[in-house]
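Step 1: inspect the first sequence and its tokens.
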Amino acid sequence: MTRFDLRWPVLAVFAIILITLLYRVPASAWLTLGMGQVLDVLHAPVQQMQSWSLWLEDRGQLQADNERLRLRVQQQAAIVQQARALGEENRQLRELLQITHIEGFHWHVAKVLGRSPDTMSQRLILQTAHASEDDVIVSSEGLVGLVASADQQHAVVRTILDASVSVPVTVPGTALAGLVRGQGDSLEVDFLLREQVPEAGSVLYTSGAGGMFPPGLAVARIVQVETIPGQVFAHVTAAPAAHWQRDNWLAIANRGTVVDE
């Protein structure tokens, strides 16, 4: 029995369908169908470039936003730092007001413009038009030094660390009397009897002897006491009670006419 071959009828059906489509579908539609994939291939690089362009624009915008935020943070940090500095200066001024009650002296404040480059700042420059030679300079913590020279705008201060400055001192409520002298980077206290010398850590104050320094100002804190056999006076080393290296404002005390700034 002969086997019927289905290939030819199937091919005939496909041929009829193809001929029908050729007659029914316009040529422009066939062109569009044929060019669709070609156009997709051609548009792909353009679309990719557009995507990259948008990404770059977004990245540039993000960078610009980050830069604006960074500048804003820096400005805010500067404002905070300035506020802290003003707060510290305000605190110093308030504390300086507490020492101006000492009678016999006239007081006003001056801004610190500069310090000598040595570690302990043995010289200071103040902005003031009302200072005279040998006026007393005080911080909120205690005695700083004396005016070495002054003009109509500035004053140069030699601190108690200077070897030319000697300050009569005592311990309030006692008969102790000594003399603090500058040694460049430390202080020495002379004329303290071995039996009367205070222990390390004690604070010495101006006694007012001689009338140059107002009484009751903290001058020095004793660091070391050494008693030498056969010596009447002890060898005493001290450090300034005031830390003027960090102060922006200092008080000036003089015995002249009251001056309003």
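Step 2: inspect the second sequence and its tokens, then contrast the two.
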Amino acid sequence: MKKYLLTGIPRSGTTLSCKILNSLHNVIALHEPLSPNKLTSITPEHAIIEVKHQIDSIEGKLVRGEPFEHGSTASLILDNPIQEKHTGELRRLRARRGLLALPPQIETANLIIKQNALFAALLPLAIQYYQVVSIIRNPVDVFLSWMNVDLPVNRGRIPGGERFNNELKQKLEATSRVSERQVIIYEWFITQYQNFASRVLKYEDIVDTQGAILANAFGFTEKPTVEIKNIKRSYDKKTIDQLESVISTNSESLSSEHYSINDISHRLEEVCASKQ
């Protein structure tokens, strides 16, 4: 199999990207089949070799039709690993990690492995072995999602990235403010992708092209068959006010060649106009 890596800022549409890619012929896109906390390596240099061996092992299991570890035991296809929000609660992870079995796959298939923080941390080394496509999203939408999910990033931590990037870990440990840590995390992802990824794709462009730009980034000419819809959620005044404060204070730090201060401000205005 020809193997690729897919990574992205958490809550930027990487799970949707896997769904889009799985609609293509001879493409298998796996949702987080690797467990970063199970890696035995201490250094990034050893970790990328361990990851490479694990990916090769997954390839063999796919060809033989054997069970392999996957981010969801329910299906290869995921709409969203996070459940919808209940009143007053954070949105929790609903995908359950475990073994998944598929019918034997052909050896000429294209295998795409998706991991967010782990691949971002190992990116300078991973790019020596794989084509790596990364997904980013407007920080307004990313931060709004981070504020409402029961994941480490909600608390300003990113374990999969910190484990193999000491500089990131030290920066996060240097401040106790969650919003400051989240800004550091967002900036870190953007910097890693701009400096090392084979391609950087914006979530908004994936939606606008109905996934065509994503398929093309991997060199696939087939048109995806997944219908992509933007889900509009409503948020209470307290959440929007908190978002507005964080984004307005840090708009310059969060801006990049992909999202200008004007892009961020415009999106913030749209979200603020929808508050309950």
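Step 3: confirm your contrast with the notes below.
Residues 44-64 form the longest helix (21 residues). The beta strands are 2-8, 27-31, 68-70, 98-100, 110-114, 131-136, 199-202.
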